[in-house]
Amino acid sequence: MATNPPQLFLLADHIKLSLLERQRAISLNLSPNSQDAQISRSLEQLRSGIESLESQVEDTADESITSQLPRLNSQLTDLTAQFARANTTTPSPTVTKPNDPSLATDFAAAQKKRPTNKSVRFTDNPSAATQDEDPNRASLFPYRDDPDPDAAPDHSSLDNQQIHEFHSQVIRDQDDQLDQLGASIGRQRELSMQIGDELDGQVVLLDDVEEGVDRHTAQFRRARGRLDRFSRKARENWSLSIIVVLIIILVLLIIITK
Fold it and tell me: By CB neighbour count within 10 A (0-12 exposed, 13-18 middle, 19+ buried), where does 212 fall?
């Protein structure tokens, strides 16, 4: 978790990008809930980071941190409110403006609307239309509405029953191939889901470790601040003690010399 203003501003920019992608999915009538858990965790990290900075400046004043806290709190409030408005497709001004100017291109891409109007070109002479196209197109798209009669199997020597059996066998072979393909896709899907679950678990563990490190770091800084204040007071008291001892010695010398 971030522990200084630049890191927190960068975290806020990543939250803004996630919110823009979420609103873009809503505008395209897609499911916007795929990143809700990650956005929620990022908002909690931002809130914890701001609280850590606030406790830090309470112990040791730091103007570079104090001056950034109002802006961070304002962005946290706006981002939380934007995330709570689940069905909105209009981003707030805070979401559309990055803190880091180098992310302006990413923000512009995230706000770009995907074109919804599609045009399909038709022609009455497909052979003439494909003459100017890539010569590899024929190998990529070998199927036609009017297939080449020379490429079809020769059924002239087969009767109707044999033709039926031949096509039935072709269909069974295709079904077997589709079953194998479906089983392979199912295994890949299960593997992907397991990898995703493992990654989510690792992210949660890393977040817990970061929170623990930040918590102990804040406690260490508070203890160090107390030690600095104690050391400063001890130095001041030692100086005062020396002055008192010198005054006593001076009075004794005055008394002795008289």
Answer: exposed
The pLDDT value recorded for residue 151 is 54
Look at residue 204 and tell me if it is in a domain: yes
pLDDT of residue 135: 55
pLDDT at residue 138 greater than cutoff 60: no
What values do phi and psi take at 133, rounded to 5? -90, 180
Domain span at residue 188 reads 160-258
CA separation for the pair 48, 118 (Å, rounded): 46
Give the pair of three-digit tokens for residue 2: 């971030």
Number of domains comprising the chain? 2
- Residue 102 in any domain: the answer is yes
For residue 77, tell me if it sits in a domain.
yes
| Of the residues 82, 114, 146, the one at which a domain ends | 114
Answer with the one of 85, 114, 143 that is the final residue of a domain: 114
Residue 119 falls within a domain, yes or no?
no
What local confidence, expressed as pLDDT, does residue 63 receive? 82
